[in-house]
Amino acid sequence: MKRIYLDHAATTPIDPIVLEAMLPSLTGNYGNPSSIYVEGRAAKKSIEAARLQIATAINADTREIYFTGSGSEADNWAIKGIAMKNQAKGKHIISTTIEHHAVLHTCQYLEKQGFEVTYLPVDENGLISLDDLKKAIRKDTILVSIMFANNEIGTIEPIKAIGEIVKEKGIIFHTDAVQALGNIPIDVKDLNVDLISLSAHKIYGPKGIGVLYIRKGVPIDNLIHGGAQERKKRAGTENTAEIVAFGKAAELANQHLEENAIHMKTLRDVLIKGVMEKIPQVRLNGHPQQRLPGNANFCFDYIEGESILLSLDIIGVAGSSGSACTSGSLDPSHVLLAIGLPAGVAHGSLRLSIGKSTTLEDINYVVDNLVVIIERLRKMSPINAECPIDDAVFEKADHHKH
Amino acid sequence: MEYTDVVMENFTCPKHVGEVEGANGIGQVGSPACGDIMKIFLKINDDDIIEDASFKTFGCGAAVASSSMATDMIIGKSIEEAAKLTNSDVVDALGGLPDVKIHCSVLAAEAIQAAIEDYKKNKKK
Ligand SMILES: Cc1ncc(COP(=O)(O)O)c(C=O)c1O
Ligand code: FES
Predict the structure, then answer these.
(1) Residues A147 and A211 in one domain
(2) Per-residue 3-state assignment (H helix, E strand, C coil) for A283-294
(3) Do A306 and A330 form a contact (C-beta atoms < 8 A)?
(4) Nearest CA to ligand 2 atom 1
């Protein structure tokens, strides 16, 4: 059966051009980039070429690009590195309630180490308020970390405006742009951002390779100690092949940014319109306009996300959900709760994320089948408009968590 | 995480979905773990034998499969026997469930017990 992959926010397939670019580094070009002989120099050269491709994609200087083992590592480095280096100035950090776990759990870890973190709330569309941010800034605030675009609901935060506020106060600003790269333009010269986390596998590159952009002069401690790689900032023999691949993927993403974005946005809007018109009792999560071009996130009343995912999988469609039942931890998505959805509603969430190869036929197939799937699951559900979900169950669920 | 073929079968083509006509024992329970809900309908005859059973479930694949399997297992049994059905019986019949999904089978066992209690209460009246 033909598979329709609609989970590009989770990861993307490797572009054949990217694969082709990285293969020589896995076969012939095996030298250790730190070695001074021919093999080493060749590897080093390909890494520097990739660094330039990434720098170009975000309008940065090559000396501001540092390769990491993942987007998660970049987030960890940015936050822990700034906290450790600048703790004499203060121990207060500002972030948001909708960050990726790589940021959220790092902040929670720092709280255990004596730092204080303010998590800015978001409105029903997932946007933070600039006023809240201004009010949260204190004398001892050393870092603001706010994501560029949310991985679940697709909402794009006002990064430029945030940067202006933060810069005026002399505070360091980090943004997790893992979901933004390749989907919306990122220009570090325009943005007043000091640190940016990126990851290759969301832009048709391989998994396990990330980048932390560090603006020149930003005081940051190392996270990974050891050898002198990455200008003494990130130890570990370089993953040459994946670095090369990331460079190529970033170059392609940059070259085709606009056409890909238009393509995805067009299909996304067909998807959203189709679902909202053909299926009753559904809500769109995330900002109606200010959202990632490929992201659609819905909540269907009275049914549960995992059942939707399994039903879609059976007919060849891959999607994802913020339902408690799919999370392993049995807690519903913190992002859906943060935009104010009750746990029962968050249960019925479905995220479909479109990619550059998604077609209109794919979308039409998904919409038509969703209509049937949702109807079938609703017939199976004990709750409906006359018999709403028993709140007591969720109160109990809350107790259970703590 | 992976479901067994039996789980997937019971999810895709669940047996006994809906509300049995003339149900005289109805039980609804919610899972404190994930917040899901299962409702079981029993039609019990004068000899306390379960003639028919059905379910409605707001829950994951494992919850739907557990309800399907559990209702299938108790049809034809006396309410005493049915009340003894444990969640492990359901898990075994499904060929196993992932660890995080064991609580979904607990829902099924509890909903059946609740439905039987409901029947007994109705009978006394
Ligand atoms: C917003 C965001 N931040 C960070 C990450 C983590 O990136 P990686 O998978 O490379 O560790 C992801 C992807 O899962 C993400 O969506
Ligand atoms: S019923 Fe929620 S996880 Fe199974």
Answers:
(1) yes
(2) EECCCCCCECCC
(3) no
(4) B59
The closest CB to that of A307, out of B39, B56, B64, belongs to B64
pLDDT of residue A389: 67
Q: Is residue A3 a part of any domain in this protein?
A: no
* pLDDT tens by residue, chain B, 125 residues: 689 999 999 999 999 999 999 999 999 998 877 888 999 999 999 999 999 999 999 999 999 999 999 999 999 999 999 999 999 999 999 999 999 999 999 999 999 999 999 999 998 87
Two structure tokens written together for A346? 């968050």
In the chain, the amino acid numbered A235 is A
Half-sphere exposure of B42 (CA within 13 A, CB side): 34
**Which pair of structure tokens corresponds to residue A310?**
């399994």
**Under a CB-based contact definition with an 8 Å cutoff, are residues B55 and B38 in contact?**
yes
Average confidence score pLDDT of chain A: 94
Secondary structure of residue A145 in the 3-state scheme: strand
Give the residue from A317, A263, A255 showing the smallest Cα distance to A293: A263
Q: Are B55 and B40 in contact (CB under 8 A)?
A: yes
Per the domain annotation, does A6 fall within a domain? no
CB A247 within 8 A of CB A55: no
**Selection from A159, A176, A196, A164 nearest residue A104 by Cα:** A176
Ligand 2 centroid to Cα of residue B60, in Å, is 5
Q: What is the CA radius of gyration of chain A?
A: 22
Asked whether this complex has an ipTM greater than 0.90, the answer is: yes
Residue A84 placed within a domain: yes
Q: How far apart are CA A96 and CA A147, in angstroms?
A: 8
Residues of chain A with pLDDT under 50: 392-402
B32 at A interface, C-beta within 8 A: yes
Residue-wise pLDDT for A301-326, tens only, equals 999 999 999 999 999 999 999 887 77
Ligand 2 mutation target, pool B11, B29, B36, most atoms within 8 A of CB:
B36
* CB-based contact A184:A261 (threshold 8 Å): yes
| A216 CB burial (10 A radius; 0-12, 13-18, 19+) | exposed
Residues whose CB falls within 8 Å of the CB of residue A221, separated by 6 or more in sequence, listed in order: A80, A81, A82, A84, A85
Q: Is residue A149 part of a domain?
A: yes
Q: Do A57 and A45 belong to one domain?
A: yes
